[in-house]
Amino acid sequence: MLAAGAVVLAACGGGDGASGAQGEVVDLLMEAADADAIEIDRGCASDLASDLSDADAEAIVDAGLDGDVDVSAAADAIGEQIFDECVDNSSIIDSAVAELEGEEGVDAECVRETLGAATTADEVFEQLFDAMLDCSDG
Fold it and tell me: Can you tell me the distance from the alpha carbon of 131 to that of 110, in angstroms, rounded to the nearest whole number?
């Protein structure tokens, strides 16, 4: 789940559809999201990623899914848009709960219910730790 979040934060801008290195960024984003069962609207992500500078897009592609990437402040700031506009929050919650299922002492369904009120992906990530604490036996 964190890999998808990192790529999303580093990668997204706005426009009329991504091609070239920007399109490759969208492919990486979708690959990371699929690996974590997070649903992202590809068209939305492509529109946003199209405004990435060539340098930022190439840096992201070169780093790949597991690499550290150094991008501009503009790319970082714009990356927040994809969480607000393209990511299905319920799929983030489902992914987090799936990782918690079977964990000793954490009520995964309680976490799901607690996070259900989150309206953005950022809120899900911000509230996840507290939800885990609130829904634990310890």
Answer: 8
Give tens-digit pLDDT for 42-60: 999 999 999 999 999 999 9
Concatenating the DSSP letter of every residue in the chain gives: -HHHHHHHHHH---SS---HHHHHHHHHHHHHHHHTT--B-HHHHHHHHTTS-HHHHHHHHHHTTTS-----HHHHHHHHHHHHHTB-HHHHHHHHHHHHTT-TTB-HHHHHHHHTT--SHHHHHHHHHHHHHHTB--
Structure tokens belonging to residue 102: 């079977």
Specify the pTM: 0.74
- Distance, in Å, from the CA atom of 58 to the CA atom of 20, rounded to the nearest integer, reads 9
Q: Report the distance separating Cα 125 and Cα 120, nearest Å.
A: 9
